[in-house]
Amino acid sequence: HAASYNTLTGEAPIVVAHRGASGYLPEETLGSYELAIKLGADYIEPDVQMTSDGHLVAMHDTTLNRTTDAAEMFAPRNGGYRVKDFTLAEIKQLTVKPTGALSGDKSPHQDFVPSMGDPYKVPTLDEVLTYLKDYNTANGTSVGIYPEAKSPFDSVKEQKIIDSLKSHGFTTAADKVILQSFAYESVVNLTSLLETNGMEAEVAQLGSVRLQDGVYGVSGSDGFNSLEKLAEVATGVGVSYGGITEAFIKAAHDLGLKVHAYTFRPLSEEEAFAMIQPMLDWGLDGFFTDYTDFGRTVVDAQ
Ligand code: G3P
Ligand code: CA
């Protein structure tokens, strides 16, 4: 690859394993994170939900049904299967199903054997952090983690994410933590919690690219914020890739903000090059993808 990149820091753009190797294996499980690391992820991504008894689990949706066998295991509760209505002990009985476009028979990674027992259970954030720390220690690697404080937004959950990172020793820049949220309010809270706890991590505001009254910004779950305003509380933005332009990346970089794109779902290497490479030329600092290997190949070819 080239000696330098057009990223903010000049370092290689990061490949974030979106929900693990979720194109191939059940999303947000230890098995999926393990495959993602083996395929060259720089960061693994868990979304964080909270159970009825206050435990943090890696799960994207606010409900259990899309990704697990909850409907076969339990009767609906309060009219549905919301994570916040079930205990951790109940959620631990579930099995996560593969949902990716190249899962099962279609997967090129069918020979992958996860190293842990029960690789497709819903892990707690603590279990993901333990797995990652142990993996990095055993292999001399420094794979990072990019946890999302998912809706429903809740300062108790945000505090617990910080506590969990702290108790597992993810406290310095070398531990490579990036926190993310669609809610500006959560971004502000997470940044302030990091400061209070003397921890170093990056924080990204998620949302869609918007140009409002001639000013670039990001539209999140609680409205539009200009890049200038975001630069006061965040280190970067994570935006839907369809809205990204070279001018947006330049505007962000001029304010010291990194730009990460979500979510690339190419179904081949060829598609991955077509989708991702132009944005890397513009200076994109990293991206979320369900297909870690395709993303890795594109970055390594830069
Ligand atoms: O966190 C970046 C990207 O994951 C946002 O979309 O819905 O997959 O969490 P979502
Ligand atoms: Ca996410």
What is the topology?
Elements: E1 14-18, H1 30-38, E2 43-45, E3 47-50, E4 56-58, H2 70-73, H3 88-91, H4 125-139, E5 144-145, E6 148-149, H5 155-167, E7 178-181, H6 184-196, E8 202-212, E9 215-220, E10 223-226, H7 227-230, E11 236-240, H8 246-254, E12 258-264, H9 269-282, E13 286-289, H10 292-300
Parallel strand pairs: 1-2, 1-13, 2-5, 3-6, 7-8, 8-11, 11-12, 12-13
Antiparallel strand pairs: 3-4, 8-9, 9-10
This protein binds SN-glycerol-3-phosphate (G3P) and calcium ion.
Give a written overview of the molecule.
The chain has 302 residues and is α/β, with parallel strands linked by helices. It has a single domain, classed as Phosphatidylinositol (PI) phosphodiesterase (TIM Barrel). 31% of the residues lie in helices and 20% in strands. It contains 10 helices and 13 strands. Strands 1, 2, 5, 7, 8, 9, 10, 11, 12 and 13 form a 10-stranded mixed sheet that branches. A 3-stranded mixed sheet has the order 4-3-6, with helices on one face. The radius of gyration is 18 Å and the shape is globular. The chain binds SN-glycerol-3-phosphate (G3P) and calcium ion.
CATH class: Alpha Beta
Bound molecules: SN-glycerol-3-phosphate, calcium ion
CATH domain topology: TIM Barrel
How many beta-strand elements?
13
Q: Please outline the major beta sheet.
A: 10 strands, mixed
- Coarse shape: globular
CATH homology-level superfamily:
Phosphatidylinositol (PI) phosphodiesterase
If you average the pLDDT, what whole number results?
97
Helix percentage: 25-40%
How does the helix and strand content classify structurally? alpha/beta
Number of helices: 10
Query: How far do the termini sit from each other?
Result: 5 Å
The Rg value, from CA coordinates, equals 18 Å
Element pattern in H and E: EHEEEHHHEEHEHEEEHEHEHEH
- Known CATH architecture: Alpha-Beta Barrel
Number of domain units:
1
